[in-house]
Amino acid sequence: MRILVAITEVATPDDTIEFSDKSITESNFTYGLNEWDEYAIEEAIQISESTANSDVISVTIAPPRAEKTIRMALAKGVTKAIRVWDPKLESLPFIDPRLKAKILAKVVSTISPDIIFTGVQSSNDCWGSTGVALAAEVGFNWATLVTDLELSGDVAHVRRELENGVDEIAEVTLPAVFTIQTGINEPRYASLRGIKQAQQKELETLSFSDLSPDPDEFQSNINLIEFSLPTSNSAIQYFEGTPKEQATQIATIIKDLGFGGS
Amino acid sequence: MSPILIIAEHRQGVINPDTFGLLTAGIELSTALNTEAHVAVIGKNPEKLAKDINIAGIHKIHTFSTSLPYNHDIYVQVVSSLFDKIQPSSILSLHTSTGTDYCPALASILDMPLLPDAIAINYTDQVEILHEMYSSKLQAKIASPLPAIITVRAGVWPTETTSGNASIEPLNISIDEESINFKVKDYEETPVGDVDISTSDLLLSVGRGIGDEANLELIFSTAEAMGATVSSSRPIVDAGWLPKDRQVGQSGTKVSPSIYLAIGISGAVQHIAGIKNSKVIISINKDPKAPIFDASDYGVVGDLFEILPALLEEFR
Questions:
Q1: Which of A231, B94, B139, B166 is the most buried (most CB within 10 A)?
Q2: What is the rounded average pLDDT for all residues in chain A?
Q3: Percent of chain B at pLDDT exceeding 90
């Protein structure tokens, strides 16, 4: 069983975002693994641990900066990592989901996985679309928003999380792409031994010319007009003062609406 | 200009109410393009569903009848065939568990640009959408040539239900059943536990900011003192600290209390979708840029571990 897990490095949510109309200033970011991908990696490793002759290969589209994050995936038990980057990507403000899928599809064709895992979305791009675009690009089946997965032979029994507390129970035949929802498992921490081993594991880097005789095929059909800040909520009233004073103001609202006694 | 094609969303015989906001978005775009708005309804008894969404501004509703529940393989085939037939200027769907399950594949197969999770749509000489990034802290106005596939965020556009007189036309296409590889077996609802947060009028809701499972005790004692029910955001349920029936949000429970008190909840899009119908939202968060404040009536920027004990005292 060969499992490919497509993972992304993201800026952490607490980071302050500095940007101009057309670009984001990345120098002040703290980077880490995309939260959804933590669960995708864990799912891949769990399956490889319970299936003979398995390996887990990770793929990330990112500049060299991301290697520290990728080593963390290797430390958790990923067998080998691939990092794709190209000078052409440097000038893009983001990589749209179809372009991501086209790039990843080339990697898929060289390693022929039985299963591809990826997170439902990344917290930076918020496309929520790459996994399905990739499945269509490589002609695999797919299941999205997966919160439970059991394999029997080449059939995957999945639970998909829909809206309003409703789950869908479905079956899909491998090879397939699964987009993994948070909560599906308990992502492990890398052990000290794992971190040491990760330094010896293979981290292959590929550019567009390694992936295709025609590197110009990797074009984005989406362009950025501008970045902007969300409109701030002018209707909100902030409670100032000491924590005690703030608590009193909250309590007043609650009591005025008839709750909590006097 | 050829029509805008809107794909209606429904499950188990009922139109998803968010479809009406999607219709508004599609009709607005068709007006901007000076063209017609068409809708596709794919599923069981589509004529009945078509009547439910036959509102003013829609010119034609295409129906495709299948006894199978929602299935992305069928949607991709049917919408592709319809695309070949009417050559729409763009295709619009909701950015939901359904829309995100087939639209990216459709974009690949039809080789069209994909514009995901639009919170605004505009047309100049190309189609532009506003898309939130970086946990809703940044907006990107992005654009592509027509035709594009746009997935639209639920609950953003107003709903209009004035009845209309669009013609309803069954689609005369056949699908290849051999290529239906995805099989839906069943649907299951989250079992309701000891509390029903959807009926509670005062919710004290806890998020990742609580840091540790042991700190939930502070939440429960404060809730008890003020007579509130405890609910939570997704990470608390993912961590197994509270059961799924306590989870507020798009995939959990949508709530409509008189007061929603959000403690250490940053306010992911999916969470905000579940609290919109609250009458008053009060939020406590240490991050002044947390998106939860954009949905709140009252806010406290501060340390919940200093404010909550003081709040508990207020109700003792």
A1: B94
A2: 95
A3: 91
Distance CA B210, CA B246 (A): 15
Split at pLDDT 50, 70, 90, the class of A262 is very low
Please report, for the domain that includes residue A15, its CATH number.
3.40.50.620
Pair of tokens at residue B130: 């506003």
Q: Is residue A240 part of a domain?
A: no
pTM: 0.96
Report the C-alpha gap between A184 and B238 in whole angstroms: 8
Q: Measuring CA to CA, which residue among B103, B115, B154, B52 is closest to residue B39? A: B52
Where b means 16+ CB within 10 Å and e means fewer, A172-188 reads bebbbbbbbbbbbbebe
What domains sit in chain B, N to C, each tagged with a CATH number? 4-179 (3.40.50.620), 197-314 (3.40.50.1220)
What local confidence, expressed as pLDDT, does residue A234 receive? 82
> Are B293 and B287 contacting, i.e. CB atoms less than 8 angstroms apart?
no
Q: Which amino acid is at B32?
A: A
pLDDT for A14 equals 75
- Residue B137, both tokens: 């802290």
Segments forming the whole domain that contains residue A196: 2-217
User: Which amino acid, B27?
Assistant: I
Other beta carbons less than 10 A from residue A5's beta carbon: 27
Angle ∠(A28,A32,A35) on CA atoms, nearest 5: 130
Tokens in use for B220? 């429960």
Q: Are the C-beta atoms of residues B132 and B142 closer than 8 Å to each other?
A: no
CA distance A78 to B178: 36
- Residue A177 is which amino acid? V
Asked if the C-beta of A218 comes within 8 angstroms of chain B's C-beta atoms, the answer is no
Residues on chain B touching A160 (C-beta within 8 angstroms): 97
Q: What is the pLDDT of residue A261?
A: 63
Which helix (H) or strand (E) is A132 found in, with range? helix A130-138
Cβ <8 Å between B100 and A144: yes
Say which of A126, A165, A243 has its CB closest to residue B252: A165
> Residue B57 — left, alpha, or beta (φ > 0 → left; ψ -120 to 50 → alpha)?
left
Record: contact B298-A128, CB cut-off 8 A:
no
Structure tokens of B315? 């109700």
Instruction: Report the distance separating Cα A210 and Cα A82, nearest Å.
Output: 12
Residue B181 has pLDDT above 80, yes or no: yes
CA distance A235 to chain B (A): 7
Chain B CB contacts of A26 below 8 Å: none
